[in-house]
Write a structure and sequence with these properties.
The structure is a single chain. This protein is an all-alpha fold and about 300 residues long. The protein folds into two domains: about 70 residues, no CATH class; about 220 residues, MetI-like (MetI-like fold, Orthogonal Bundle). The protein is built from twelve helices and no strands. The radius of gyration is 24 Å and the shape is globular.
Length: about 300
């Protein structure tokens, strides 16, 4: 187990290095300047600003300095928002993105897993077919299509739920963006749970339990649930990654004060410090989520420990 943990840790470090390298050079390849405004900036002022932020130096020198500063915990200042540190920007906006992601993944788990169990229990029934049809619809519809539809219908036309804005204390503001982000993952989880449960239900120990008169309910909960959830648990890490990355777009749809606005603006203006900080933050979250799901998978399936 210790060897496995060390290997996963080393893989995470390599992933973060690759993320930083790709982000840095891709941002530098973007056209335009982070100091570009509606009014033209004189060339001598542009040169002074580039010199102040070290943008007039060769790319290898800039890369080495950025990597050294990040290792020291210094992510630098935003090139677009003068005087604001990257850590300050992330510290103010990240709680909204994190809360939205956690609510969405929780919704996906509590909706997708029970539906998958029920579909496996009622295999080849109307309930099974209808559940999987709804799941397939959720998979096919992207979140950036579902979001505007929900906001228009429930927020503007029917005025049932808030369509814009965010409140940490009012759950009504969480519903539409969380459903938009969690619906696709819930659909995948339901199909994976159904497949895992059906595979477990076909095992010999289940037939033995049925021959001994064990009820279907006890067979599902006590004998099959732990093994049947293994495929779904393995998917939770990538699902969290998809929700986190998707939240950057959905936050713009619902006008949420999260990292999505800063992320999109950083791409538009080539604000490399902000973009790098956000990418590395979400990279760490995704690595930790996959690590947690791996540990949970080991606990659910003892055969993986060998």
């Amino acid at each position: 187990m210790l060897r496995y943990l060390i290997n996963r840790l080393l893989q995470g470090v390599i992933v973060m290095i690759v993320l930083f390298t790709l982000t840095f050079f891709l941002v530098k390849a973007l056209p335009g300047s982070p100091f570009k405004t509606e009014k033209a900036i004189p060339e001598h002022i542009q040169a002074r600003m580039n010199a102040y932020y070290g943008l007039d130096q060769p790319l290898p020198v800039q890369f080495a300095k950025r990597a050294t500063n990040i290792l020291k915990g210094d992510f630098g200042s935003s090139l677009r928002l003068e005087g604001r540190e990257v850590t300050e920007i992330i510290g103010q906006a990240f709680p909204v993105s994190l809360q939205l992601g956690l609510v969405a993944i929780t919704l996906a788990i509590f909706v997708g897993v029970p539906l998958g169990v029920i579909a496996a229990w009622k295999k080849n029934s109307i309930l099974d077919y209808s559940t999987m049809a709804i799941a397939m619809t959720g998979i096919c519809l992207p979140s950036f299509v579902i979001g505007p539809i929900l906001a228009d219908r429930f927020g503007q036309k029917w005025e049932i739920l808030p369509a814009m804005g965010w409140s940490n204390l009012n759950p009504l503001f969480w519903i539409l963006p969380s459903i938009t982000l969690g619906l696709g993952s819930a659909a995948y989880l339901s199909r994976l749970t159904r497949a895992g449960m059906l595979d477990t239900l076909s095992q010999d120990f289940v037939r033995t339990a049925r021959a001994k008169g064990v009820s279907q309910k006890n067979i599902l909960i006590r004998h099959c649930l732990r093994g049947g959830l293994t495929p779904a648990v393995a998917y939770i890490g990538p699902a969290f990654a998809g929700i986190i990355s998707g939240s950057l777009v959905i936050e713009s749809v619902f006008a949420l004060p999260g990292l999505g606005t800063h992320f999109i603006k950083a791409i538009e203006t080539g604000d490399e410090p902000v973009l790098t900080g956000i990418v590395l933050l979400f990279g760490i979250l995704i690595i930790l989520a996959n690590f947690a799901t791996d540990i949970l998978g080991y606990w659910l399936n003892p055969r993986l420990r060998s």
